[in-house]
Write a structure and sequence with these properties.
- This protein is globular.
- The chain is built from nine helices and nine strands.
- The longest helix is centred in the last third of the chain and has 17 residues.
- The chain has about 240 residues and is an alpha/beta fold.
- The protein is about 35% helix and about 25% strand.
- The protein folds into two domains: about 150 residues, 3-Layer(aba) Sandwich (Rossmann fold); about 80 residues, no CATH class.
């Protein structure tokens, strides 16, 4: 069952095409890693999947009962955002905004869901802490908890391990993999860390201002493109 499908999709800025030839689908239960060099179009693709940017050609379809408001998103952070003066609970609760409808306030159900997601990621004890006082790894867990409050189906993760030390990277990758396998959440992850990111992914989409590869991870590792970006004759 396809949750997202791109058919002959292109994106442009100011009349200049920056990404083209997108033909792929994300099935329920997939773990897709989107890779490519700087400027390859990865962030543009995410904006399209989030309906924040309209394709200049082609179409992006949702299926499996997925609504655009049911996509959990973990964005890259700016330095200003890392200094956000709010409590952890307030940040995580903001993931419930799309569920409020006409209600002006969060309910106890919303708060219970936020507490559940924080406990799931081991940060329940930080709920009253100030977000800006947390470590980088803790902040990413807070943002992942917020994203989980938005969805039970699909997570879009934009460079989730950027700036983390090797130990924290490994732990966050493990936690994302557990969400995928144990919670049955479909994952689309954009990453510069090709080797680290594809260890858990079952599919790879490689961009270079166009679609260079889409398929299973094992096939990517055997491909000329995969061998080049993964380093010589190494395999995965």
């Amino acid at each position: 069952m396809s949750l997202l499908t791109c058919r002959d999709v292109s994106f442009s800025y100011g009349g200049t095409t920056v990404l083209s030839g997108l033909n792929f689908s994300v099935e329920a239960g997939d773990y897709l890693c989107v890779v490519g060099e700087n400027g390859a179009g990865k962030s543009t693709l995410l904006k399209g999947l989030l309906h924040l940017k309209t394709p200049s050609a082609g179409e992006i379809l949702t299926g499996g009962g997925l609504k655009p408001t049911e996509i959990g998103y973990l964005p890259q952070q700016t330095e200003a955002q890392k200094d956000f003066p709010a409590s952890v609970m307030e940040v995580v609760l903001s993931g419930r905004l799309n569920h409020l409808g006409i209600r002006p306030f969060y309910t106890e159900s919303d708060r219970a869901d936020a507490r559940e997601k924080m406990d799931l990621l081991g940060i329940g004890n930080l709920k009253d802490s100030c977000y800006r006082d947390l470590s980088g790894g803790q902040q990413q867990r807070v943002l992942l908890s917020r994203a989980l409050c938005s969805t039970g189906k699909l997570l879009l993760l934009d460079e989730p391990v950027t700036g983390l030390d090797p130990i924290m990277k490994t732990e966050l990758y493990r936690e994302i993999a557990e969400l995928h396998t144990k919670r049955k959440i479909t994952v689309v992850m954009v990453s510069h860390d090709i080797r680290g990111a594809i260890e858990q992914a079952d599919h790879v989409l490689h961009l270079g201002n166009r679609q260079l590869f889409f398929g299973e991870t094992a096939s990517y590792c055997r491909s000329e493109l995969g061998r080049y970006f993964l380093g010589g004759g190494t395999s995965c």
